[in-house]
Input
Amino acid sequence: MSESEGEAVVLIGKKPVMNYVVACMTLFNSGAKQVVVKARGRAISRAVDTVELIRRAFIKDLVIKNIS
Output
């Protein structure tokens, strides 16, 4: 989890999905307007799971801006 130039970033790795969900929710609760979730390789599916879990369980009106 890092913040660079006003942009909150969560880097997805090998930890359980809920760890990343908590990291994203912490950033949103601390005032971040948007959170960037980044992953490479096998961790991409974990990143998708993280965002979908946040969207379905915690923030119903979450807007996903870009997937690349």
Notes: Residues 43-58 form the longest helix (16 residues). The chain has two helices and three strands. The mean pLDDT is 92. The beta strands are 2-4, 7-11, 35-38.
